[in-house]
Specification:
Rossmann fold; 2 domains; 9 strands; single chain; 307 residues
Length: 307
């Protein structure tokens, strides 16, 4: 594994399998590797609010015997209060790793460039790799395989969708994306995924009709229509995305056993209905839990102590 975990694109298929194997062990026994991070300190630099990312990382670091330090936007504002290079070099003298949750992806890349310690992308506007890796792990956990599994993503082609493209193509899973026109995933990432898929056998398909995207699928995934930083577009997006709601009618087009996923927080009644999210087919809270186990596995691979 490289020094940093910035994108799933940087992981080999074998490394993804190793992360999954470690996460499976950690889920069976949360304290199995307690002490692996003894004496190590990890900073969480968050410019965006967080529930799951912050709590799962802080708890995970604690369960591995490490020390988590949370830095709010007013405490440290990369590139504003102090240059990114200076922050990265200084923190590298104190810490063993940095987890960054920010807006522009260029900030993550710059911190990783100047930091001599591992940097983990806890979310940027372009990518959300910890989330997507946890999602694919959850699907594998539930279905026992990824090959020949079809995942359908319906809604905004945001950072989660971008990362699922990398995750699906790397693991050979089929991925169908349904978004309104002009709201699809990053074109460069789509091209990357299509190239990777040639080697793994994954099938990547893009649609502007949600019905076509979910037909005969094994898993349906959705996310908020207006991600953080795009709240001013919420009303406009509500009009555009109305037909992309994951509801009983849409779910009926998939396989009867279809699994329902959402990375949370959910705007119930908008991108997903209560009826679907609370149905027996929903694995929303399983995927939320798995953030803890996957992130602990990533920390172990980057900082050692798991062999």
């Amino acid at each position: 594994m490289k020094k940093d975990f910035v994108s799933i694109k940087d992981l080999s298929t074998q490394e993804i399998e190793t992360v999954f194997s470690l996460a499976k062990e950690l889920k069976k026994d949360r304290l199995k590797f307690f002490g692996a991070l003894k004496g190590k300190s990890v900073a969480l630099i968050f410019q965006k609010p967080s529930n799951r990312t912050r709590v799962s990382f802080e708890v995970g670091i604690s369960q591995l015997g490490g020390n988590a330090i949370y830095l709010k936007p007013e405490d440290i504002n990369p590139g504003v209060r102090e240059s990114i290079a200076d922050i990265s070099k200084t923190l590298s003298r104190y810490l063993d790793a940095i987890i960054l949750r920010t807006f522009g992806h260029d900030i993550v890349l710059e911190v990783a460039k100047y930091a001599s310690i591992p940097v983990i992308n806890g979310l940027s506007d372009l990518l959300h790799p910890c989330q997507a890796l946890s999602d694919i792990f959850t699907i594998n956990e539930k279905l026992g395989k990824l090959k020949d599994v079809t995942l359908s993503y319906v809604g905004d082609g945001n950072n989660v969708c971008n990362c699922l493209l990398y995750a699906a193509s790397k693991t050979g899973m089929n991925f169908k994306i349904g978004t309104p026109k002009r709201y699809g995933p990053n074109k460069e990432i789509v091209d990357d995924a299509l190239e990777i898929a040639k080697k793994t056998g994954a099938k990547i398909s893009l649609f502007n009709n949600p019905n076509d995207a979910v037909k005969n699928s094994d898993v349906i995934y959705t996310d908020v229509w207006a991600s953080m930083g795009k709240e001013k577009e919420a009303w406009k997006r509500k009009m555009i995305f109305g037909k992309f709601q994951v509801n009983r009618r849409l779910v009926a087009l998939a396989k009867p056993s279809v699994l329902i996923m959402h990375c949370l927080p959910a705007h119930r009644g908008l991108e997903i209905t209560d009826e679907v999210m609370d149905s027996p087919n929903s694995i929303v809270f399983d995927q939320a839990e798995n953030r803890l186990h996957i992130q602990k596995a990533i920390l172990l691979m980057l900082l050692g102590g798991h062999k």
